[in-house]
Amino acid sequence: MQKIPTVFVRDFDNNPAHVLPEVTPGCEWVLTGEGQATRKYDGTCVMLDEAGKWWARREVKPRKPVPPNYAVLSVDTETGKTIGWEPIDQSSFAKFHAEALQAAGPSERTAGTFELIGPKVNGNPEEVDVHRLVEHAAAQHVSVPELTFDGIRSTVLALAAVDGCEGIVWHHTDGRMAKIKARDFPKA
């Protein structure tokens, strides 16, 4: 899974980097209504590969060594971070991932990506009582009535105000994705 592009261009001249009312090249399809909008869960991304092995997404800062058995996907040209996967058993989230699998009980899982959420993951912004896995392919659909900068900002901030929703991920039928987070917009 490659890093998902942000719908709008980031303004890296400011800290934190917020978005500008300019579409990131390659994400124009979002504003033409070609994708399905889904809730962006706030946890950590994990993947079950075709061989049945679990991986945790990890970003490595510039000039830091990558962990053993790390599968590099790409390097972010803006931040210099290396994006990739590490085996879940060597991840700092291994224990919570095991708890999520145990809580789910025996089940047939298909290969794909999931969001690990729970009390010990990123401060539990999803406010759940137990660790669990949310399949990205089955994420909750959301409605974005106006596909403009202001309309998307309004929808994302409204969702965040209701229950802390991190943001929205759009899924195109051809596999492309794009995202936006509530924190991408400056506080008014």
UniProtKB/TrEMBL annotation:
Keywords carried by this UniProt record: ATP-binding, Ligase, Nucleotide-binding
Q: Does this UniProt record's set of keywords contain Transmembrane helix?
A: no
Among InterPro entries, the record links this protein to:
RLIG1
Name the domain of life this protein comes from.
Bacteria
Pfam families recorded = RLIG1
Q: Does the keyword Ligase apply?
A: yes
Which cofactor does this sequence's record say it needs? Mg(2+); Mn(2+)
Spell out the protein name for this chain: DUF5565 family protein
Taxonomic classification: Bacteria, Bacillati, Actinomycetota, Actinomycetes, Kitasatosporales
